[in-house]
Amino acid sequence: MKQSLAFILFLTCYSTAQEPAKPQLDRDAFTFTKYDLQVQVAPARQSLAVRGRVVLRNDSEKSQSIVALQVSSSLTWASVRRGDAPLAIETTKVESDIDHAGAVNEAMVALPEPVAPGGTIELGVAYSGTIAFNSSRLEALDTPRDVARRSDWDRIAPEFTAVRGVGYVAWYPVSLAPVKLGDGNRMFAELGVWRARHAESVFHAEFDKPEGKVLLTNGQRREDGDKVVCDFARLGLEAPLFVIADLAALENLNGRIWYLPGGQEMAKEYAAVLSKWQPSFTTAPLQKADFVQLPEGWANYESGPMMLAPLRKAPEPEIAQGMVHTLTHASVASRRPWIYEGLAHFAQSRAIEGQLGREAALRFLAQRTPALALAESTGAGQDLIKATDEVFYRTKAMFVWWMLRDMLGGATLEKALAKYRADLDKEPSYVQRLLESESGKGLEQFFDEWVYRDRGLPDFKVEAVFPRQNLRGGYLVSVTVENQGAAGAEAPVVIKTKVSDVTARVFVPAKDKATTRIEVPLYPVSVTVNDGSVPETDTTDNDFTVPPPK
What is the DSSP letter of 382? Predict the structure, then answer.
């Protein structure tokens, strides 16, 4: 019996060894360099039908014989073709939270010949189905039902159609490893890498013009007969979305307020605010921003120069703070995330400062510091120039622009940014040279530690304070600051007296110390380094209480 079993195992292993190896699926191998889609949306039937072409480039190091094309699990693959020839496909439902339904329909496509590294292939695609409201992926994580329904509102419906892109609804083909929202930050990390890889991709879509309704997208759009033609220029930053609804618009030089029936009076208030606001570092928007009214109870969503939100009664400063982020996107067309998103967040903090003062703006910054400090402390840092994680290209970049403003002066920064041209930004040091030319200051060290490489964050400590009375009756205070962190920075040093505060700035290199001398009218009570304008890992030792004079 033992000999028979051994013989059977031998035959099995031998037989398996003789079978040709099946090609391995690498979902990250291909980059979608071009989308050219014809889109039919039927709100009355909640349906979507898409046909068109995609161009794929093999960015892996091996030839590829198969490709995975994924769309929402509520959509069904009709065909994948090479030229006029249909290709063999095997479709499978794969659990993945890149779609609001918690799954995608994946077509495994056998390519007619292997695509070599760097090679491309054009495929014709056709698929259709419905996109209905579905909050199941959030509810599966025990998210309260009302919260889940406010967040995952995507749907095609007669009364209001709004469909966001991958990460919400895979209404266009993608290829991503299966990810779940409950798996820490993995889904957002995977999406960030995918978007960065597709930063230079071209996305062209032609929608059938809806009868009696308006079709909006977050791309450049124009009407051409019975079509609405849309081009999405920043696929690496903005997932293509579309909205179809009974909308009317109030328009001014800065943008448009799109409102639903019954929303005109509130739209007038928003339009009045919109007419007053424009980021200080631009002279005119490159395109008009769109602010689209969502049904009540739906959560706000922004993508590039488009903001979707219910129109609610609110104080003018609050409305303006929400608008300035979107207005910045409409004014600065950079493909670099740290510029495009970082400037938008910086503009938001500046708007708060202009309305409510520096302390309010610093509180805004402080709310965002812990997430950045945590990411840096856990070793998850990313070079800002090529970051794919939002905590870096949004939050850290916002701080970088704030620090540059403090270092160079607001007027200098604004003049330099007014000269920024996305078509000239072809290499990483373009912005550095632009700022150096306007300010006359060398910024190589700052950009090396904060933009080109991730050195972590500073960690300031007031090490020593020595007041000395001068002949005029005031005091010259020597303050020594230590930076225990891995990145150097220029930080404010604030000396408090019983009647006033005096502020100076000091640059402290990484793992080093620096001393500054500040003249104050009275004996100092305390000294603080960093008012929160520079992100750092630990702020518990930033204050120093000065002993009373002997």
Answer: -
List the one residue out of 217, 231, 322, 225 whose CA is nearest residue 269.
Answer: 322
**Cβ neighbours of 7 (radius 10 Å):** 10
- Model confidence at 287, in pLDDT bands (50, 70, 90)? confident
First CA to last CA across the chain, in angstroms?
99
Residues 512 and 481 in one domain: yes
**148 sits in which H/E element:** helix 145-151
Q: Can you read off the two tokens belonging to residue 153?
A: 């509102």
Residues 164 and 268 in one domain: no
Name the amino acid, one letter, at 241.
L
3-state helix/strand/coil string of 219-252: CEEEEECCEEEEEECCCCCCCCCEEEECCEEEEC
Contact 163, 154 (CB under 8 A): yes
Mean pLDDT of all residues belonging to the chain? 92
Report how many domains make up the chain.
Answer: 4
Residue 42 maps to a domain: yes
1 lies in a domain? no
In a domain, 351, yes or no: no
263 and 235 share one domain: no
225: left (phi over 0), alpha (psi -120 to 50) or beta: left
Q: How far apart are CA 153 and CA 540, in angstroms?
A: 42
Q: Are strands 202-208 and 30-42 parallel, antiparallel or unpaired?
A: parallel
Give the range of the structural domain holding residue 278, as residue numbers without chain letter. 248-331
Contacts (Cβ under 8 Å, ≥6 apart) of 321? 348, 351, 352, 355
- What's the token pair of residue 354? 């202009």
Q: Which two tokens stand for residue 535?
A: 């992100």
pLDDT band at 235 (very low <50, low <70, confident <90, very high): confident
Statement to judge: residues 274 and 289 lie in one domain: yes
pLDDT, position 234? 83
Query: Cα separation of 254 and 327, whole Å?
Result: 8
Residue 23: what pLDDT? 61
* Domain boundary residue, one of 241, 265, 288: 241
Angle at 346 between CA 343 and CA 351, to 5 degrees: 125
Of 369, 371, 353, 370, the residue nearest 361 (C-alpha): 353
- CATH code of the domain covering residue 472: 2.60.40.10
Q: Is the pTM of this model over 0.85?
A: yes
Nearest to 54 by CA among 68, 73, 65: 68
Computed on alpha carbons and rounded to an integer, the radius of gyration of the chain in Å comes to 28
Q: Is 263 part of any domain? A: yes
**Mean pLDDT in residue range 406-417:** 94
CATH number, position 222: 2.60.40.1730
Average pLDDT, stretch 348-360? 93
